[in-house]
# Entry
Amino acid sequence: MSIPFQSFSISGLLTLDMHSLNNEGAEGNHLQTRMVHILDGEGEPTVVNAVSGDMLKHIQAEHLHGLAVDKDLALCEGCKTLSSNRINADHEFIESLGSKAPTADVLRKLLNHCAMDDLEGVLITANKNSAPRKSTVEFGWLIGLPEVTRTETYFHVKFDKDRKEGSGDDSGANLGQNIFYRPASSGKYALVMNAELNRVGFNDFTREYEISETERQERVQALLESVMLTFIKPLGAHRSTQFPHILNFEGVVAVSGSTVPAPTISPLNAKYQAEIEGVSNNLNRLYPNTIQTHVFHSQSEFTKIMADLIEQVR
# Structure
């Protein structure tokens, strides 16, 4: 079997210091970070700093774009420029579909035309079409552990050597001296993500693979590599002055060799590693040798596990 895994998951704790990867917006000169209401490991409601799954998927997609270009994978005109509109920005492809085209036909053409739209998903609605391509990779929110995650706001100044003529500028232009307040958060963040490797190149409507086995291998490898790079270099907001300090990454990688899903348990549960091992053992009683789990305690152990898995996709 050239692609030995049908699904893949990570449940982990990422330790980040002094980051501002994801923010809600600004009130005046105060930038506000994302805070979310959750239930903690004891089932009690609390408020904590978080990074959205949209941000994590954006980071993964940006790494995937670089890999796709390096590996010369098929890309639509939109994905070549990393347009958020993806294949919808490829006007020649959209016009070639015609109006009210059968969804199965649209997906067949899409899967052959662009690796990123295959892996990341997209919705085509132009020319009265309605063709959804569901993403093969899914990210939950990165949620701080309430007991060890903190956010503070810090005072900053954009210094103007001619400030004697006045502070700031009423025109809206970025002129004059400005003061502003920016948040920074530090803590341990719980992560869950999942990838449906068996759906790479798969037409959900015809239930058939639309690309060659070699193309599927290349796309699965690129997908796994992009997930690995996401936790080596997070590409979120304010990195020019608040590049995150990554202290550690620990958790469990689970892979499944059948349609039985690779399990995930949120690290908001302090016993998540034991729970994943228990679930995997029970699933393997019913479906022998289906689930493999790999525990890691550092980034180097995580990257070794990922490199080993990627090398198995031959």
The chain has a mean pLDDT of 92. The first strand starts at residue 7 and ends at 19. The CA atoms of residues 232 and 299 lie 8 Å apart. The first helix runs from residue 53 to 70.
